[in-house]
Specification:
The chain is an alpha+beta fold. It folds into four domains: 275 residues, Immunoglobulin-like; 167 residues, C8orf32 fold (Roll), CATH 3.10.620; 211 residues, no CATH class; 91 residues. Helices cover 34% and strands 25% of the residues. The chain contains 26 helices and 40 strands. Strands 26, 27, 28, 29, 30, 34, 35, 36, 37 and 40 form a ten-stranded mixed beta sheet that branches. Strands 2, 3, 4, 6, 7, 11, 13, 15 and 16 form a nine-stranded mixed beta sheet that branches. α1 packs across α9 and α25 packs antiparallel against α26. The longest helix has 28 residues. The two termini are 60 Å apart. InterPro entries: DUF3857 (IPR024618), Papain-like_cys_pep_sf (IPR038765), TPR-like_helical_dom_sf (IPR011990), TPR_rpt (IPR019734), Transglutaminase-like (IPR002931). It comes from Pseudaquabacterium inlustre. This is DUF3857 domain-containing protein.
Length: 975
């Protein structure tokens, strides 16, 4: 969403990184890191934004942790290095991984045989500075062979090889401190040249004791570079049952069928493939998509066994603590369970700082609460266990839940194991339902029930007896958690470039939580940058009028940033018109297009669920008088549903936009369609408003009132003032048509079309008697023109000849009218006033969807009245439309009135909130709608008064004006 939320996203990214103690999913993390090192890619990812990676610190390791020249481990079966037949810059000629699982966990050995060839000078550093990640607390690295293959020569570098031990940084600006004990062993190989192959054989022995005797591992099969010969070989005692599974969502799925053999009580499983293509991971791949094939092994048979393993870790011996007991007494004094949960959560979040000391077993085993309280720091598992014990002591059920923040739904697809579970949250049961709390997040003044939770697709494994499988987490209770809304009010005080902007940006859920935090940390200048970031490029030179302010509704986890700007170039003149251009600010930065549309993997295009809303209002000078009725245009795509409503009544332009995600990701084949959809979305938005000089009043309100021969302040005077510019424009049009008709050029059908235009203009001025013969002459001259029959039909409706009007309009449709939806709208009225209400309703249903793809609410109103008079139940689509936004932009409230779900008083309050010409025009419509409302309820007197008020304004080119006259003529006389 542009710069304003850029700061929020930065903090969100940092917080999300803080959720992941690196060692929690160490079997998978090490496997991926080691796979990267095997193709000589950097083990540590670059921070977002292209900043340089933090420097690694060189350390010393105890003797015996890393050795060289060791004999090969038992059971190793080496493969020959295949010929170098590929020319890519970096090629793995051989990648052989042999896993030997002994009778005990400590006897597990991982053997790697790697032959890496550099065919470009840019890749020489990948051979000469090779890194192997190691956890010295429980692992030992044995170097068996380090050789360079140069043509027919084999150069042994075991003796002159230099080793450096580099410790990754424990934290930086992008992530909180995490100490995993990992060391990157760097092999400095001398004298490597283009075309050389680095041949390595090394083994890593030892497993984290926290996992006990169970074996599990993830191994990537596909890599960023091609592999000439790839093998994974698993050896284990036949008495141990180790299952395997292939994962992968790419075009090539599955793995080569394994070869199974048994000998001397050992079982061997061998996966082998030649010429494995490189599989780069493209940008913005969805979290749960597995772009490369992976091989998973697991000795866990059921998820219940994983849950029991975690339960043992999260059940440390009870340790007394005076501070713990004091906290329990403090929270117990609060009035209800929800208040106690809120207080305990905020205390743990705010008083226990985040620091992950994830060494050895502490990568997964939490520290006892008494230790955490004493230290005043801990990671996700430490803080979660502390909060769980506090709540349990208060009698509130609380269960830790293991989740995967990197792949939220993937645990449902893999074999049971702890390997993907990289974070811990807490499920709390209150009388009104379950909540998910995250003690790792910053402390904020938000009720627990309204706090943002993990993505909706997240599966969690409860650390509790009886857990059978990962389950979906309880959804957030905040119905608006996915909503971001922006309201912009522009003011154009005069027909000159300068104007003003008042903007309100409202954030909910996670966005609100982090904007609250960012705002609290920001200096005044930084707050200004947050507020101005999304506007400064669109409106160069804009300046603040006062300081931006943040209103915090913590009870509903909602914040609103309000700012006011002076905009020096808000409107501009183009071809004699005054033009205002806009774009829904709420869309900025929300659709993430990949760098290239040519890709093989799906792409995460937007957050999901996501709801974006925007309102734009432009108050033009009082002299502007435009009559553009509200129209809603909709778009439905595979990715989102969008709608845009715009109107320009009097001197107020209004635009409403909404986009609701249907999914967040698209397959590669969906990207070309997405680009077409986004082009259509820009057309739906149509971010340009032009004021024609003809739409600017040439006389004031008093002059318009005098011309209407009506006392100032009366409905007739108000109507005359609101429509003065339109009437002047229509009269000038009639004068131009008469001048053309008086000349010799217009003949036949051309003359008929000109007469049609004149008849339409006369009708709009209420001069129906004059329009009748003009329209008849037009039909006689151009009987094959659909627009002429359209014109004739509308004049006939105005004079009450409904059967003839229906025939004329049907003829216009048969001849291929360019505006069939408008013709059906008018034919629906002709049928309505013939008492053929079902036929009328069908026409109005067709007219509600206009030719340009927009929805008009006015035909829907007539459709409701038609079905009500026909005694037919309203269909679901019409009910949904009428109930969509009863408090929305006019005339939406009128639909709710027609259903009886808004009162006349409520409707009138909506109208009176408007101002100027817009209010006058809305009053004309509202009086007619109230007349229909009273007719439906049998109150003839009230209906008559309403229709009379509608007519009193004299807005002759409004359908409601002539329709009110028809209704009055049909009402019985009397009180």
């Amino acid at each position: 969403m542009g710069k304003m939320l850029g700061a929020v996203r930065c903090v969100v990214a940092r917080w999300r990184q803080g959720l992941r103690p690196v060692a929690w999913a160490m079997p998978l993390a090490l496997a991926l890191a080691l796979a990267q090192s095997l193709v000589a890619l950097p083990v540590l990812a670059q921070p977002a934004g292209g900043d340089a990676a933090p420097a690694l610190r060189e350390v010393q390791l105890p003797a015996g942790v890393v050795t060289r020249g060791e004999p090969l481990p038992d059971g190793v079966q080496r493969l020959p290095v295949p010929a170098a037949a590929r020319a890519e810059p970096l090629v793995l000629r051989l990648l052989d991984v042999q896993l030997r699982v002994g009778a005990e966990a400590a006897q597990t050995t991982q053997f790697f045989d790697v032959a890496l060839q550099a065919n470009a000078s840019a890749m020489l550093g990948q051979l000469g500075e090779y890194e192997i990640p190691l956890l010295p607390a429980f692992q030992r690295l044995r170097l068996h062979a380090v050789r360079v293959l140069r043509g027919e020569r084999v150069i042994d570098h075991m003796a002159d090889l230099q080793l450096r031990y580099l410790q990754p940084p424990r934290g930086n600006d992008a992530a909180p401190p995490v100490d995993t004990g990992q060391v990157n062993v760097m092999l400095l190989v001398p004298d490597v040249r283009v075309g050389d192959t680095l041949s390595l054989a090394f083994s890593i022995q030892g497993t984290n004791p926290v996992f006990g005797e169970r074996f599990f591992m993830f191994l990537p099969w596909d890599l960023p570079s091609p592999v000439v010969h790839r093998r994974v070989l698993l050896q284990h005692p036949a008495a141990r049952s180790i299952a395997w599974q292939a994962l992968g969502d790419g075009p090539v799925q599955g793995l080569p069928a394994p070869q199974l053999s048994e000998r001397d009580g050992w079982r061997q499983l061998s996966f082998e493939q030649r010429d494995v293509a490189a599989v780069p991971v493209e940008p913005a791949v969805p979290a749960d998509h597995v772009p490369r094939r992976m091989l998973q092994f697991s000795e866990y048979r059921q998820w219940s066994e994983v849950a029991q393993w975690a339960l043992d870790l999260f059940s440390p011996p009870a340790q007394g603590s005076e501070e713990f007991d004091a906290l329990v007494r403090r929270f117990a004094a609060l009035p209800d369970p929800a208040a106690r949960v809120d207080a305990a959560l905020r205390w743990v979040q705010g008083e226990i700082r985040y620091y992950a000391l994830s060494l050895g077993e502490n990568s997964h085993r939490p520290q006892p609460p008494a230790v955490v309280l004493h230290r005043r720091f801990g990671d996700c598992k430490d803080k979660t266990l502390l909060l769980a014990r506090l709540l349990q002591a208060l009698g509130i059920p609380a269960v830790p839940v293991l989740v995967s923040t990197q792949t939220p739904a993937l645990p449902g697809r893999v074999l049971p194991s702890p390997g993907l579970l990289d974070h811990v949250v807490l499920r709390v049961t209150l009388p009104d339902g379950d909540l998910v709390l995250d003690p790792t997040r910053p402390a904020q003044p938000v009720p627990s029930a309204w706090r943002a939770t993990l993505p909706a697709a997240t599966l969690g494994l409860a650390v509790a007896a009886g857990t059978q499988a990962p389950q979906a987490l309880p959804p957030t209770r905040d119905a608006q958690a996915a909503l971001m809304q922006i309201d912009e009010q522009f003011t154009v005080p005069a027909l000159a470039p300068e104007g003003w902007l008042l903007t309100r940006i409202t954030l909910h859920g996670l966005r609100a939580e982090f904007m609250r935090m960012v705002w609290g940390m920001a200096a005044p200048a930084q707050r200004q940058q947050i507020a101005v970031g999304m506007y400064e490029r669109r409106y160069p030179g804009l300046t603040f009028d006062g300081e931006p302010e943040l209103a915090d509704d913590a009870a509903h986890n909602r914040v609103t940033i309000e700012a006011r700007f002076r905009v020096p170039q808000l409107i501009r003149q183009v071809g004699g018109h005054w033009v205002f251009e806009f774009f829904p600010t709420v869309l900025q930065g929300e659709v993430h297009l990949p760098p290239s549309l040519q890709r093989t993997q799906p792409v995460q295009v937007m957050d999901h669920p996501l709801l974006l809303r925007q309102q734009i209002q432009v108050q033009w000078p009082q002299a502007v008088a435009v009559m553009e009725d509200p129209r809603t245009r909709r778009q439905e795509t595979a990715l989102y549903e969008a709608k845009a409503t715009r109107s320009f009544r009097g001197n107020r332009f209004a635009f409403e936009f909404e986009l609701r995600s249907r999914t967040g990701a698209l397959p590669p084949s969906g990207l070309p369609t997405l680009m077409q959809d986004l082009d259509r979305l820009m057309g739906l938005i149509d971010g340009r408003v032009a004021v024609d000089p003809a739409e600017v009043r040439r006389q004031g309100v008093a002059e318009a009132s005098r011309m209407a021969a009506a006392p100032p302040g009366t409905p007739a005077a108000e109507g005359a003032a609101a429509t003065a510019a339109r009437r002047t424009e229509i009269e000038e049009r009639i004068a131009r048509i008469d001048a053309a008709l008086a000349g010799p050029l217009l003949k036949g059908a051309d003359r008929g079309e000109a007469l049609c235009l004149k008849a339409s203009a006369l009708r709009q001025l209420g001069r129906d008697v004059q329009a009748m013969p003009v329209s008849a002459e037009a039909v006689a001259l151009a009987p094959d023109r659909p627009d002429v029959w359209d014109c004739r039909g509308k004049v006939l409706i105005h004079v009450g000849q409904f059967a003839l009007a229906e025939q004329a309009l049907s003829r216009a449709l048969a001849l291929g009218s360019d505006s069939p939806f408008d013709v059906q709208y008018w034919r629906g009225m002709a049928r309505y006033y013939q008492g053929r209400f079902q036929d009328a309703a069908d026409d109005f249903a067709a007219a509600a969807r206009t030719q340009d793809g927009s929805d008009s609410l006015y035909p829907s109103l007539w459709r409701i009245w038609s079905l009500q008079r026909a005694g037919t139940a309203l269909p679901a689509d019409l009910l949904a439309l009428a109930r969509e936004a009863p408090q929305g932009e006019w005339p939406r409230p009128a639909l709710a009135l027609a259903l009886g779900e808004l009162t006349p008083e409520a409707i009138w309050q909506q109208v009176e909130r408007l101002s100027g010409d817009e209010r006058t025009l809305a009053r004309v419509e509202a009086w007619f709608y109230l007349g229909q409302y009273h007719l439906q309820r049998g109150d003839v007197a009230a209906a008559r008064r309403a229709f009379e008020q509608c007519r009193a304004h004299g807005v002759t080119f409004y359908i409601e004006h002539f329709a009110a006259g028809i209704e009055l003529a049909r009402l019985p006389t009397g009180p």
